[in-house]
Structures are given as structure tokens and as C-alpha cells.
Amino acid sequence: MAVAYHLGRFPPEALDWPQLLPLIGPANAAVARYEGVLHGIPNPNVLLSPLTSQEAVLSSRIEGTQATLGEVLEFEAEGAPDDESTPKKADIREVLNYRAALAEAARLLDDLPLSQRLIRLTHERLMQGVRGRNKSPGEYRRIPNWIGPEGCTIEAARFIPCSAEALPDAMTAWEEYIHAPAPDAMIQLAILHAEFEAIHPFLDGNGRLGRLIIPLFLKSKGLLSAPNFYLSEYLEAHRDEYYDRLLAVSRDGDWTGWCGFFLRAIIDQAGSNQSKAQAIHALYTARKDWMVGATRSQYGVRALDWFFSRPIFVASDFVSQADIPEPTAKRILRLVRDNGLLREIRPSSGRRPAVLAFPELLNICEGRAAF
Ligand SMILES: Nc1ncnc2c1ncn2[C@@H]1O[C@H](COP(=O)(O)OP(=O)(O)OP(=O)(O)O)[C@@H](O)[C@H]1O
Question: Where is the Fido domain (predicted)?
Fold first, then answer.
């Protein structure tokens, strides 16, 4: 029997606070430590952009897309973001949409509160393209949906979210809860994510959108100076538990179990985000000194910023777009290739220019020697 949405039981009346207290302090402290690191990074939007891309890859992977970070960045570098002609390319498009949706939401957050309006606009961006066309971008569903094995009937579903009739009120209550006084912001966020998933307001993209809300919430509550927080690595690694804990909220009213899981994810990922951000910052600082010395050019740092913002790129794009005089750009490219800072992942052939990658940076993001 499918579990059905816990209508009328949101927000939870009571949590088992003694069980959660040992996690609440560490979760808040871990996020605060991460924020300290984030705050010290010049231009986090550039330096952490590959981490954001990796988050988009992992969040989309939870829903079954197959693309890797390298494939996404290489595809993007080659400049055909609208091409969905193969399943792989359509997967890549979804990942790129995710990243664009996060960027769009971050911009919107400057003028709008975290709200239904912002969520719907973000959904519209997430669903842009062929696959999303039938998924009512930016609009709540007016029909039932269900969660279960791929392509299953409603009878075989594991979970049946909020009915379409009850959905508008459920989303209003969800929105009110964002701005309601709460004893702890991390618990509030845990509850908001689970409730969003239980409502499942859109035809598609609910998982990804619910995860996008996490950094947006942390930014909107002033817990982070930029919406750069990456939780999907943990959720992907603990996918079964993630789904089971969400199910137990509706089935057993076990909000405490869900919150505990979520806080453990926050603690773990704040640590991982922190070490990755520190490693990227250290790499930047070390390579900046090297670039200045080796290139003896005022353009050395500009080139380095380009490599950080596009860790995979087509060599000729750097020459034409980096705003560096052509002979200097070519000389810098030779230098960084000879030194091993960049590596050719696809040699030039005929009229196709070479594709270059920045392995040190990509490996930090992947958390392993993938390049
Ligand atoms: N029992 C459950 N109760 C509530 N939410 C759940 C449950 N199981 C899974 N989820 C959430 O639903 C998401 C998957 O939902 P679904 O397969 O419908 O994808 P979707 O709505 O198309 O969104 P996306 O494609 O981004 O996942 C999961 O990532 C998880 O966040």
C-alpha cells in the first residue's frame, strides 16, 4: 500500500528535541565554520563555480541522470547547450539547467523573499528545453502524481504526494513556515525540504528544486553570505536512507528521524564543502603567485581567473574571449600547458581546436583523481 501525504499534519507539532540537540549545535557550528571560509574567498562565484557545477551533477544524478562533471563541462565548452539529440546530451542539458536555475534564483533572492513566486520562477528555468516542455514549467500541477519505481502505476506507488486540490493551501502553509519564528534554522530547513518533497508541487523537478532551496534558505537567513552550499554528495551517497526517511515522515510522522538524518548530512557536507573550498582557495593563491612570476604579464591573473571559471574550455575561446591580446594569450596557453597546469583532453584535429582541462581544480571538485 502506498503511503499518502500527511494532510493536516504540517508543521509537526512536536519533535524529540533531546534526540536532536546533540546534532543541532554541531550542524550550526559546521555551517558557521564553512561560512568563515566562504567569506574569506575573493569572488566565490568564480572560484566555487566548478563546485556548483558538481552539485548540479550530483543532485541530478539522484534522479538518474548519467552525466559526469567532465562531460558537462566539456559539452558546455563546445557550445551546444541546446542540443538534446541523445539521452546523454539531454542529461547534460538538465544539469546545465540546474546550475542556471540556481544562478537565477540567487539573483532573484536579491529582490524577492524566498517564496512561492521565486520557486515557480526557478522551476521555469530548471525545466527549460525539450524534456521539460510537457512538464508545465513554473506551474503547480493540477493532476495527481506519485513516487515509485520508474513508470509504475499509482497502485504500485511507494508514496502519493499531496492531492492537486489541497496543493495550493499546502504551499501557502509551506511558504508561511519559511518566515515563521523557529527555534533552530537548520531544523526549520530540514522540515521545509521534507514538506516540499511531500507536497511535490510540480509535475517534474521536485527533487532537484527541493535541493536547490537548501542553499537559498541558508543565504536568505543570513547563515551564508552566498548561496554556495552543496548537500547532494551526501544525499546521493545515502539515497536509500534519504528516501526512507522522507517516507517515514508521512507514514509514521517521524519528523525527528528525518531531521536527524538531515542534520548529519549538513554536518558532513559542511566539512566536505569547507575542505574543498579551502583547497580551491589555496590552489588559486599558489597558482596566482606562479602565474605572475612565470608570465611576467599583467594578464596572468586574468588568465588564471578564466581557467577557474571554465576548468574545461576550447583553446581558441580563451584566445578570442579572455580579453587578453592574442599573442599574450597564446604565450600564456603554451606556458600553462608546458608547466602541466592545463592538460589537453582532446587534441586539435583539422579545424577543431584543442580542448583543455584544469585537472587540479577538477579533482578537488570530484574529491578524487578523476582527471
Ligand atoms: N517517500 C517520499 N516522500 C517524499 N518525498 C520523496 C519520497 N521519496 C522520494 N522523495 C523525493 O522525491 C524526489 C524524486 O521525486 P520524483 O522521482 O518524482 O522526481 P521529480 O519530481 O521528477 O523531480 P526530480 O526529477 O528533480 O527528482 C526525491 O529526490 C526525493 O527528494
Answer: 114-264
| Domain edges within the chain | 3-276, 296-366
Residues that are catalytic = 200
**Tens of pLDDT along 110-138?**
999 999 999 999 999 999 987 777 889 99
**Nearest 5°: CA angle at 289, between 287 and 294?**
90
Q: Which residues line ligand 1 (CB under 6 A)?
A: 62-63, 147, 158-159, 197-198, 200, 204-208, 210, 243, 246-247
Q: Is 151 annotated as a binding residue?
A: no
Indicate the fold that domain 296-366 takes in CATH: Arc Repressor Mutant, subunit A (1.10.10)
Pocket test for ligand 1, best of 61, 63, 209 (most atoms within 8 A of CB): 63
How many Å lie between the centroid of ligand 1 and the Cα of residue 197? 6
- 25 annotated as ligand-binding: no
Q: Which three cell numbers stand for residue 211?
A: 535541493
Rounded to 10 deg, the angle between the 255-295 and 49-62 helix axes is 140
| Cα-based distances in Å from 16 to 13, 20, 260, 371 | 10, 7, 10, 45
Provide the pairing of β-strand 312-314 with 3-4.
unpaired
Q: Retrieve residue 193's grid coordinates.
A: 525540504
The whole model's pTM is what? 0.96
Position in ligand 1 atom list of the atom nearest CA 204: 22
CATH 3.50.50.60 fits 3-276, yes or no: no
- Does this complex have an ipTM over 0.90? yes
Residue nearest to atom 25 of ligand 1 (CA): 205
Is 51 annotated as contributing to ligand binding? no
Residues 75-114: tens digit of each pLDDT: 999 987 678 899 999 999 999 999 999 999 999 999 999 9
| Å from CA of 72 to ligand 1 middle | 23
